[in-house]
Amino acid sequence: MQTSGKPRRASKTKTRIRVVEDGLMRVRPDTLATEEPMEIRLLGGGMKQTVAVTMRTPGADFDLAAGFLYGEGIVNSPDDIARISYCVDSDIDAEQQYNIVNVELRGNREYDLRPLERHFYTTSACGVCGKASLEQLELRGCPVIGPGPEITAETVYLLPRKLREAQGLFDATGGLHAAALFDKKGELLALREDVGRHNATDKLVGWALLEGRLPLSEHVVMVSGRSSFEILQKCLAAGVPVVCAISAPSSLAVDVAREFGMTLVGFLREERFNVYAGSDRILPKDKGRPE
Predict the structure, then answer these.
(1) Does residue 126 carry a catalytic annotation?
(2) Which domains does the chain show, CATH number per domain?
(3) What is the pTM (predicted TM-score) of this model?
(4) What is the DSSP letter of 219?
């Protein structure tokens, strides 16, 4: 697989704001997380088609495109992708060329794009709902996650701090989510940031796909904020057994975790967290095995 082009869109945007403090107003510079649309186009098999537009923070755009297509079941391995590039069409405004990513698929086979119909426009906080979503995952052949790995509570406690310390863009803007990949000992392997949790997760899974690391069957994914159906869907497709979040899960996220044998941790703060599914993988401090 080939990739081409260098990102030209900044992940940070400079601005000036007015700060009111102790009744006084002053002007100072500030930095915002950039939010711009990114269009994903598929090429190959006799087609050239826009399949999604997502609001994202520029950066790791190729990982985002690859992870999105993998999570939706359009590609199954890096071998399905011949090339990823930014748009260079002469009729596209030069300013927007780096907001359009072309994914050229290998071979001439036809690809089933029906799973993408709900994604033609995706915001940074999109979601889906309903029992049909779980059935769709089953029809796609997503397997139930196998047993293991086992992770100590002490290891889980350390994940938020390690995630936060690696969030370079958050330090500058204060307005980005993150998804981080850890091994079962709590070592940080990769982290991606974006205005949307689901985009950050796509970027992380896309990186793993392009690096030939899937499935992530011995790993932990940690996301800032809450965990939703889409976060669990993307982690399930990547074979992730343990998903942790700073905040609460949605009811459908819990349903996915329980249905497919995943461990779901929420409200992970300091030395406390809730386990909503798969508690057998978590080893408490005072016991060798959970009850």
Answers:
(1) yes
(2) 151-283 (3.40.140.10)
(3) 0.86
(4) E
